[in-house]
UniProtKB/TrEMBL annotation:
Protein name, per record: Glycosyl transferase, group 1
Cell membrane as UniProt keyword: no
Native organism: plant metagenome
GO molecular function, one term: glycosyltransferase activity
Lineage: unclassified sequences, metagenomes, organismal metagenomes
GO biological process: lipopolysaccharide biosynthetic process
Key word Transferase present: yes
Keyword terms of this UniProt record: Transferase
Amino acid sequence: MPGDAFAHWLVSYPVAHLNPFQHLLYTAAETCGFRVLPALRLDGLEHVGWARRMVLHLHWLGALLRGCQSAAEAMEAVHEIDQRLAGWRKRGYRIVWTVHNILPHNHQHAAAEIALRKVVARRSHLIHVMSENTGDAVAGHYRLPDDKVFHVPHPSYQGWYPALIGKTAARGELGLGAGDFVFLFFGSIQPYKGLLELVEAYDALRRKRPGARLRLIIAGTPTDAAYCEAVSSKIGGRPDVVFLPRKVDEARVQELFSASDVVVAPYRATLNSGVALLAATFRRMVVAPRQGAMAETFRQDDALLYDADSGEGLVDAMERALAHRVQENVLDALLSRHAPFAVSTAFFAALRGRLDLAEH
């Protein structure tokens, strides 16, 4: 809406430079009457005169405590954030929080992280959840007031990544054969992702199916050097495992997914999963624990989900994947539910419908 002095402004914080999620969620912003301003810092918002026209959209809250050196410093930061949120509310700003995870995966100050989420839940006007069971999932740590919560699912990645390379060409680039069955792990390499367990399950499956031509790709950015080294040692330079512990260029994402038969996400704990929607975008199914958004996303075909508490659950699900064939209409329906423009439109409709924003 160029030139419209009365457009609504959405200030998004923090900015995820390596994750296209925010771009996808905001796809319909201008169509819905919003202009998005990515914010690297929150300083100075108190001087902006956009009462009832500005939405402060908070994402990954761990950024607010990053750099705190002690538990006391982290709790003091929570107090300061509480005061700032209260001040912004008094100025007429609307506050929305998207719950991405229960707690940050690598948090250092658990008590402060929990306290921060209690503060943000109390100060927010609306709370966006992407999985319908989010309230139950976080209840052991903090409460989400029912009257503030609205559900809009995680968008898929349709239209974001190139999808031009076919399976044969992709496998040729990676040194994989046409008759191989290829499992793909894609994402950051860190302990909660369960990579050591994945390699063990993969080895167990090779023992169960000695005649199968199984291959495993592990690709993603290491965020824990010691853990990455442990994974590398467990793999041991084997030719049947392609290990790419580095940032994957966007142009190469299609190569990895096109080369694969199925994606594996053996996370120890997860609330939402972008990789599930990324896999679906490339029309691949996912082997994963039956929990959180995984169960919701694949509710029409959950054959490759497993009980995380079952000792053989992962290897059994990987074995099922060898013969499983998903119905194309299941993937069509999944991608329709998670189409970025439709998801974005629903998100902004909730904001316009429930935030009492000024229209003039």
